[in-house]
Amino acid sequence: MISTFRPVHYPTDSAWRIPSTDECLKYWHTYNLPEHIREHSRLVAAAAEHICCLARKKGLDAPLKAVVASALLHDLGKFYCIKHGGSHNQLGASLVMELTGNPAIAQGVMHHIYWPGEIDIHKFFLPLVIIYCDKRVKHDKIVPLEARFQDLYDRYGINERMRGLIYKSWQQALAIQTRLNQALETDLNACTFNCRGMV
Q: Which of 72, 62, 65 is nearest to 18 (CA)?
């Protein structure tokens, strides 16, 4: 069956509430995120913040606070799903909508595993940066895409179907990286995202 889902472009100048970093950390506590998931989320947020700063210098509409909040909350449903099953991105997006009422932030959470639409950095900056930064953080280290996806193959590539899905995700991450590199005029795969003073 072919999906007819089309992602929605949420305006960055909307009146939706954006939780502060402190609020995001309180949500971590409320949903019992273990330290290793918190550290992963901190690094994803720091990388996303770095990309936002580069994007703003190039004149792109990069909603810094919303991007950081979405990055900090992208794995909010993970610990529950590890214990009880389910899709952590779907649960996390539902929790984020309930907590914030902000569909742009929830969209970044919902689609941090795979983006179902066109890779348009100008139209879908927030969710594409979240998915890209998540794919650059292996556990608690920022790594090149190849290292992250090798880890995913090693841990989850248990059959041909799973290996195919991981390969598809890797190709998408490379395409997002290419679009970001073009827009930012940089080589993000070589970037270590110096995170001092961020998040």
A: 65
Q: Can you tell me the distance from the alpha carbon of 29 to that of 23, in angstroms, rounded to the nearest whole number?
A: 10
**pLDDT single digits (tens) 18-60:** 999 999 999 999 999 999 999 999 999 999 999 999 999 999 9
- Which residues make Cβ contacts (< 8 Å) with residue 107, sequence separation at least 6? 7, 8, 10, 70, 93, 126, 127
Contact 27, 73 (CB under 8 A): yes
Query: 72 near 24, Cβ under 8 Å?
Result: yes
Q: Where in the chain are the domains?
A: 21-190
State the alpha helices, DSSP H only, in 74-159: 78-84, 88-100, 103-110, 125-134, 145-156
CATH 3.90.1570 given to domain 21-190: no
pLDDT digits (tens, 9 = 90+) for 118-173: 999 999 999 999 999 999 999 999 999 999 999 999 999 999 999 999 999 999 99
45 touches 125 (CB < 8 A): no
Q: Which residues pair with 130 in a beta bridge?
A: none
CA 118 to mean position of chain CA atoms = 16
Percent of the chain with pLDDT strictly greater than 90:
82
Q: Answer yes or no: are the C-beta atoms of 37 and 22 closer than 8 Å.
A: no
Q: What is the mean pLDDT of the chain?
A: 91
Give ∠ CA 187-143-191 in degrees, rounded to 5. 25
